[in-house]
Amino acid sequence: MALGTLDRTPPPFFKQGPSAFTRLMFFSSLAVFLMVADQRFKITQPARAAIATVLHPMQQSLLVPVRLWRQAGDYLVGLEYARVTLDATEKRMANQAAQVMRAQQLEAENTRLRNLLNLRPQIVVQTQAAEALYDAPDPFTRKIVIDRGSNHQVVAGSPVVDEHGVLGQVTRVYPLTSEVTLVTDRDAAVPVVVARTQQRGVAYGRPESSGMELRFMAGNADVQVGDTLHTSGLDGVYPPGLPVARVMRVDRRADSAFARIVLDTLSKPDNPHHVLVLKPASDHLPVLHHGGVVHVAPVPSASSVASAASDAASGVRP
């Protein structure tokens, strides 16, 4: 057959639809539009909640081998650990007996003084125990997923603590689970106060070092290595007095007006297991009415919250 008689037109398969570049631009624009719409209007939140609810049984089944492995390890070392813990607890209780009696006297005296000054009573935060299931799949954030959700009255913004201190804050709630942003996340910020000097500041997460940083503190601020930082309660989220971090390094530079203060978290964000979910402190603030102020129930001290978290880690449910 002569070459001139060949049909050089492309087959219909390659002539159908728009060009590849047009499709690329269309789907790229659609993807950007959906991301912006989801960020501002939360249009995919119902779909996320439905998918999370549907996948929850599958996630639980996939976690069965992990739980069995943990239980096997706990069984092998549990008896020895229990004996050591019992001996240490008995010694600690003997050493703290006098301190407990002194604390009771101080608490009674504090109550009398607050009544004398007609001060509003402290707030007592409602808590519930939860268990950390797994880390969130996003590699650019520090988040975990716990086994409590909106069905358990968990709300966005709820503080989360372990037996050592503040662990993070609930940032996304599903019916059966919730996402907790850890204090070491780059977007995490906790208003704190230095326990020794009562100087206030804000601690930010440092995910690259699994720690925190106290920013915007003056170069001559009275902050020393070893100082303990507690929540100040000014944000209306974290109750005041919860332990947050300890100062590890203070760098004062002549070319900067601010000191660089590196913190080590008191909680264990790298290996959370049992945690406590607290109600946001703003839910317990007094509400003004025309007739006056509504009376509110008394936030626990840091020691009471840490003690409750320790009970939760031991399997005791509040």
Runs with pLDDT <50, length 5+?
287-306, 312-318
Shape: globular
Percentage beta strand: 25-35%
Query: How are the strands of the biggest sheet laid out side by side?
Result: 1-2-5-4-3-12
Specify the CATH architecture of the largest domain: Beta Barrel
Cα-atom Rg, whole angstroms?
27 Å
What is the CATH class of the largest domain? Mainly Beta
The H/E string reads: HHEEEEEEEEEEEEEEH
Number of strands: 14
SSE class: alpha+beta
Domain unit count: 2
Mean pLDDT across all residues, rounded? 80
> Cα distance, first to last residue?
90 Å
Q: Please name the CATH topology of the largest domain.
A: Thrombin, subunit H
Q: Could you estimate the helical fraction of the residues in percent?
A: 25-40%
The CATH superfamily of the largest domain turns out to be Rod shape-determining protein MreC, domain 1
- Largest beta sheet, briefly? 6 strands, antiparallel, barrel
Number of helices: 3
Compact overview of the structure:
This protein has 318 residues and is α+β, with helices and mostly antiparallel strands. Helix content is 34%, strand content 25%.
Can you give a write-up of this model?
A hairpin with a 4-residue loop joins strand 3 and strand 4. 34% of the residues lie in helices and 25% in strands. Residues 287-306 and 312-318 have low confidence and may be disordered. It folds into two domains: 22-119, no CATH class; 125-318, Thrombin, subunit H (Beta Barrel), CATH 2.40.10.340. The radius of gyration is 27 Å and the shape is globular. 25% of the residues are buried. It starts with 19 loop residues before the first helix and ends in a 5-residue tail after the last helix. The protein is an alpha+beta fold and 318 residues long.
